[in-house]
Amino acid sequence: MNYDHQYHAGNTADCVKHLALSLTLQTLVRKDSPLAYIETHAGAGRYALGTQGEHLQGVSRLWADRRSLPHAGAWLKIVSNENADGTLRHYPGSPALAAALLRPTDRMVLCEEQPEVATRLRKAIGKRAHTSVVGEDGYRTLFGQIPPPEKRGLVLIDPPFERRDEWERLTDTLIRAYQRWPQGVYLVWYPVKIRGTITRLWQALRERLPAFACELLQMPEEGREQLFGSGLIVVNPPWGLREALAAALTELGPLLSAPQGGGLWSLRCQGWPGPAPKPPVHFNG
């Protein structure tokens, strides 16, 4: 795999994804019942930020305004806690972010297939109780974890999109996972790059599961094969999440817009109800 978590840490995709993750977990922990958190592509957990890297177009643009972005406040507070002296040098990945938001009794299953990265993840996550790091394929591991004994939980699917069949595998995994555990909440990140591929994903999901999708574009979408922005799909979204996420992304949009796009940005959200309920069966007797 060529994906370099270290270089990409804190980029615009991470900002969108981790903002959505924090808002979703904040909503889920409001109920007293326990949660399971499962992540299929966990990465190293924590990252050192240098003078170069994609964070310069991402979280570094937000850092000066971190106290004036109320809808992103919980996420940025966790980033601030990793940088107590006020200088942005460290970035918490999704495992560290989830660990900070979950309750001590909530269970975490973190999948990371690359051995070196999995070793760093175990060190980053420390001795947190009820936490497992699985050094195997995250898609396959997921089906051994659902439905979890807690009955409630969140699955984060954030693949690197390097495999030729990544979109097909993502679609198949999401549909089958929902069939096995329809009570679970699923959060998926995808790159907004080739519209036809995204349209096929949406069409495959539309009639099969209840969800909404949001896309934050950092530049105008003009049909060229390049990365325009980040997309999110939330299956079984908790009540109020769609509105909270839209408000938070609206705050971030102007700060994350790409200079080559003339500072233009846009936010698109679309939802679908999922499969229609089966009609009642009437018996004559």
Q: Would you kindly provide a brief summary of this structure?
A:
Keywords: Methyltransferase, RNA-binding, rRNA processing, S-adenosyl-L-methionine, Transferase. The chain has 285 residues and is α/β, with parallel strands linked by helices. Helix content is 36%, strand content 19%.
Strand and helix layout:
Elements: H1 5-8, H2 12-28, E1 36-39, E2 46-48, H3 59-63, H4 73-81, E3 90-92, H5 94-101, E4 107-111, H6 115-125, E5 131-134, H7 138-143, E6 153-157, H8 166-180, E7 185-192, H9 195-206, E8 211-217, E9 229-235, H10 241-256, E10 266-272
Helix pairs in contact: 2-5, 2-10, 8-9
Task: Write structural notes for this entry.
The chain is α/β, with parallel strands linked by helices. It has ten helices and ten strands. The chain has helices at residues 5-8, 12-28, 59-63, 73-81, 94-101, 115-125, 138-143, 166-180, 195-206, 241-256; strands spanning 36-39, 46-48, 90-92, 107-111, 131-134, 153-157, 185-192, 211-217, 229-235, 266-272. Strands 5-4-1-6-7-9-8-10 form an eight-stranded mixed β-sheet, sandwiched between helices. A two-stranded antiparallel ribbon has the order 2-3. Helix 2 runs parallel beside helix 5, helix 2 (12-28) packs antiparallel against helix 10 (241-256) and helix 8 packs parallel to helix 9 (195-206).
